[in-house]
């Protein structure tokens, strides 16, 4: 048996294993249609708790739509979606939204709205800011921060709410290399640090065009084309040319930059 076939079988076994564990997220034959555009087509995906999954594919292949379906922002036109409740999820976008308020309050207000006492909300917000090295800027206007600082603040805001699922839509796409590195380091820390005692593991699903980032952060890669999942592999298999060519020639062409 060739190495490629063996690796493929290993993957199949791994996925069969995931199939038996209770899935944290399960999409069954999900379709999304926007008028004449079929943005997702028969997408079936199971994600285990604690996994870190990258969504990749060309522009318009359906990555954002898939994230929005999981977050409950878009109702599928077909199929079923099982995901944790919205309160247990946090979603970050390429350009973070900021309240017209201080850095600290951008976190504290969200916690307060979810029922925390104001003093507790502020204390937790400060703790979250320390985690992303923004505590010295707590009193500044959030909208005056740089793009990289705003994305770190968005991550701190997410972290403060202790989500079980973190969804990120190209979170570093508009950042310079240094800010990209800082945000990526936080994403890694949040998802690869062992969960505290009694805490459920954090699961991450992120869309990215940055293949280096995918290699660094994902344990699993899902490749989409025209709304269909054409490959779903462990990261080491996805970036193994022999395996990828055997499993999905289209994904292999995409990686080589030869897809027309
Ligand atoms: N609200 C909408 N109304 C109409 N069409 C939409 C809408 N949202 C997405 N689409 C279309 O659905 C398809 C999938 O879009 P989506 O944004 O999910 O792709 P993507 O993979 O995230 O793209 P990119 O890498 O460019 O961000 C595209 O053809 C897009 O134009």
From TrEMBL:
Transmembrane segments: none annotated. GO terms for molecular function: ATP binding; ATP hydrolysis activity; phosphate transmembrane transporter activity. SUPFAM superfamilies: P-loop containing nucleoside triphosphate hydrolases. InterPro entries: AAA+_ATPase, ABC_transporter-like_ATP-bd, ABC_transporter-like_CS, ABC_transporter_ATP-bind, P-loop_NTPase, PstB-like. One of its GO terms (biological process) is phosphate ion transmembrane transport. Residues 25-251 form the ABC transporter domain. PANTHER family: ALIPHATIC SULFONATES IMPORT ATP-BINDING PROTEIN SSUB, TAURINE IMPORT ATP-BINDING PROTEIN-RELATED. This is Phosphate ABC transporter ATP-binding protein. It comes from Ottowia testudinis.
